[in-house]
């Protein structure tokens, strides 16, 4: 069993495996179609969502598995 390349939560200091993808966009920096992504574990999804949400940056929260599936579909 390997977790070497498992995606890790983006929360500061957190080493937990990511379960969620938070897709966001800062209209001051990014064109509207652009999506930046943060990864979140179960514990930090709420925290990171709120951080982006109150700034109006948060676009989407998707389960990592679904995100990878849709990315593979192109
Ligand atoms: Zn975390």
From TrEMBL:
Q: Which domain of life is it from?
A: Bacteria
Protein name as it appears in the record: Acetone carboxylase
Which species? Answer: Streptomyces alkaliterrae
